[in-house]
Write a structure and sequence with these properties.
75% of the residues lie in helices and 0% in strands. The chain is an all-alpha fold. Helix 1 runs antiparallel to helix 2 and helix 4 packs antiparallel against helix 5. 40% of the residues are buried.
């Protein structure tokens, strides 16, 4: 094998590895979103940071190798990356819903994570061996370093698996569940975002406009939390009292007043039970990003405070969203006032 062919083969393998790292980032994010606080989630969060470093290191090595040469190799790498990301993103809803209870969902995701780590170990073992075979010591050292990190994570998951199985036994066999959806990554993220908005909104003043802009940077988190909670919710956990005794028409009439978290929770609960098209269609029409993260939890006064210092774009979003949901007169009047002043 000539020198150019050797380099291009290394580039091909590294591009495939980078695609795997990008897919792993998204898979870890989805698992963290539905994993309660504890030793296992701490491990996932640490490995997420590590995986981002791995992706960056592989990317830097690819740049050092030029990535010029054979265009086909580069196209293969790009396609691998796109496919890997699509698979990870497409799997996210399944990670949130699979299994009969929260404990089992976490266990099944951990088994998937174990398989993914084994695949990455095999990938970097192959890269290390290839690089040594063609005299590329820098790539061989990088591959060996990343492989060592993956082996440590594999061992960590293996240590956690018996604990996760025990949690399933307690929940599914002994009737003593321990899964707390309120401490999952998604739930904590949305609470932090909501608290930040509420605190700064009450402070008002010159910070309100900046608060609104910052809050909009966390889309979809409320829905993720609601989906997680709904997957394990009972009727008593829903925002509509006596849900199971109500007709479809009675339920749909109450849906507009609910937050995105509660809409997602009911969506998940309904799909697990009666799966009524009328209700699910209405929820789909109502679901969407809040004007800013945590909006649904704010009072009329809180929203008015933010609107007083907002731009017309935010006021328009508030008016549109509010009309379709809670339809609070005080909020609509404040939004109209802001738009008139603009």
């Amino acid at each position: 094998m000539d020198k150019n062919a050797s380099k291009q083969k290394v580039v091909q393998y590294l591009a495939e590895a980078q695609a795997g790292e990008q897919a792993m980032i998204r898979s870890l994010q989805s698992q963290i979103a539905m994993t309660p606080r504890g030793a296992y989630r701490t491990g996932l969060e640490q490995h997420l940071r590590q995986t981002r470093d791995h992706a960056a290191d592989v990317g830097e090595r690819l740049q050092e190798l030029g990535q010029s040469g054979d265009p086909l190799t580069l196209v293969v790498g790009v396609v691998e990356t796109v496919v890997g990301q699509a698979l990870a993103l497409g799997k996210t809803p399944l990670n949130l819903l699979r299994g009969s209870g929260g404990e089992e969902k976490v266990l099944k995701n951990a088994k998937d994570a174990y398989a993914s780590e084994a695949l990455e170990i095999a990938t970097y073992t192959a890269i290390e061996q290839l690089a040594k075979g063609v005299g590329d010591e820098d790539t061989a050292k990088l591959a060996a370093s990343i492989r060592a990190d993956e082996e440590k994570m594999l061992e960590r998951i293996l240590r956690e698996l018996p604990k996760l199985v025990d949690a399933v036994v307690r929940a599914e066999v002994k009737g003593k569940p321990s899964f707390d959806a309120g401490t999952t990554g998604a739930a904590e993220t949305v609470r932090k975002a909501g608290d930040a908005v509420a605190d700064k909104a009450r402070a008002a003043g010159s910070q309100a406009k900046r608060t609104a802009r910052q809050a909009r940077k966390v889309p979809g988190v409320a829905q993720a939390e609601g989906q997680v909670k709904g997957a394990v919710a009972s009727e008593e956990d829903l925002a509509i009292p006596g849900y199971d005794k109500l007709t479809s028409e009675e339920i749909t009439s109450k849906l507009p007043a609910l937050s995105q978290i509660d809409l997602a929770k009911i969506d998940s609960y309904e799909r697990r039970n009666n799966n009524r098209t009328t209700i699910l269609s209405r929820i789909t029409a109502l679901r969407g990003d809040e004007p800013w993260a945590g909006y649904d939890e704010l009072t009329v006064s809180d929203v008015q405070t933010v609107l007083a210092k907002s731009d017309d774009d935010l006021a328009q979003k508030v008016r549109t969203y509010e009309r379709s949901h809670k339809n609070r007169a005080g909020v609509l009047q404040a939004a109209e006032r802001e738009l008139a002043n603009a």
